[in-house]
Amino acid sequence: MALKIFNVLHREKQDFMPLVEGRVSMYVCGPTVYDHAHLGHAKTYVSFDVVTRYLRASGYNVLYVQNLTDVGHLLETNEDRILRKARQLQAKPMQVVETYAKSYFDDMDALNVVRPDISPRASGHIPEQIEMIETLLRKGNAYEVGGSVYFDVTTDADYGKLSNRRLDEQEEGTREEVRGEKRNSGDFALWKRAEGEHILRWNSPWGEGFPGWHIECSAMAKKYLGDTFDIHGGGIDNIYPHNENEITQSECANDAEFARYWMLVGSLTVDSVKMSKSLGNFRTIKDALTEYRPEVVRMFAISAHYTSPADYSEDNLNAVKGGWERMYNALRLVRLQMNKARESDMGNGFLDRVKRAKSDFRDMMDDDFNTPRAIAVLQEFTREVNTLLNEGSEVGLSVLKAIEEAYTSTGTDILGIFPAQDLALNERSAERESALIEMLIALRAQARAQKNWAESDRLRDELARIGVILEDRADGTIWKVE
Fold first, then answer.
1. How far is CA 458 from CA 197, 447, 453, 464, 465, in A?
2. Which of 38, 338, 398, 474 is found 20 to 30 A from 118 (Cα to Cα)?
3. The CATH number of 4-139+152-164+215-310 is which of 3.40.50.620, 1.10.8.190, 3.30.460.80, 3.30.70.3270?
């Protein structure tokens, strides 16, 4: 099955064919670094991490560029987000940027997100942005008024093709100040003149000012990926005006198609309302990581299809946690048994099931990176692995190795939800773990003999919480990992 991607630009699922065979160029709109990242950011950037991992696992050489916005992203009040945060903290704007850029990357590292190949900053590419603005002025797509430069949306007949919004449907004031100096309400700023109190400012042919929000992505994508590249990613909430404006200014300036495939991630919601800092209904990644393992937060981020909205709640996170623990405990049990297993042909019939699980996983990923269905494949595989391991028959070492490889090549290398550093259980630690479980079972047997049913139930429940299921038989109690 060939890889298919839902292309938002054409509103259909299409076969993926990169510009250059064997190579993929991808640009993803990164965060504005003025506060700690929240779980909505986790959904977006974990999703594109999985995309990158899968493309590389499929043999592609991927060049992944993800920017950091550190200037020009204005609030509805026309106030720069970085400057507002700097005033709140009584800090320099670049102190804010450095603090929260580091915080963002710390969070991504914790979530096992592979760093992008290039992470350019808007403030480090002012010359490239000015050069593109000059090109748009020369071609008649932009105009200068009093030190500010605006893109004239009426000069592009295709404007609105991504968001499917006609010019007469554009809302005045969306992320841009509506001034009398603009020719049309939908025109957007390429360069803004810096008022007297504005700290972030650069020299330009039009006087001191700063770039608009949208021009940064166009300029940096062109610099690192060329006029046309394969995949543009981001959040669905930025489809208009940000992504729409990226396309129009880039294609008018470069006379070339901008991005060939548009992949936009659905929002994370709280009670069906988008999680955002402006609404105050967000939970930071750091906060979530105080209660949940990073792998659980990561699995939550991809538990819904990347294009779909996902609703945050403690119940939903806990449900994901339970599912993750069942899979990971099975993988640990495989490792435990590998330390004691010998080479034999016992269980070889299961090898076909291993092969099918890997094939089914790939089919799900080829279908527009369908991570929830790929996870479901691993969950079904886990049920069968537990049945195999707990039925009492010997399983040969080669079968156990094949099962482990299936988990690691899918859940570790692609989904990133199984920590590779925790997998290397040596024989001594395996024996220690088994001995501790046996000791707790013995303590429970003692409590039962003393008719201390409350303590007996507590020990049983504690074992069940970590995935160890007890079965009381006439000849004693046996245990298995769920």
1. 64, 10, 8, 10, 10
2. 38
3. 3.40.50.620
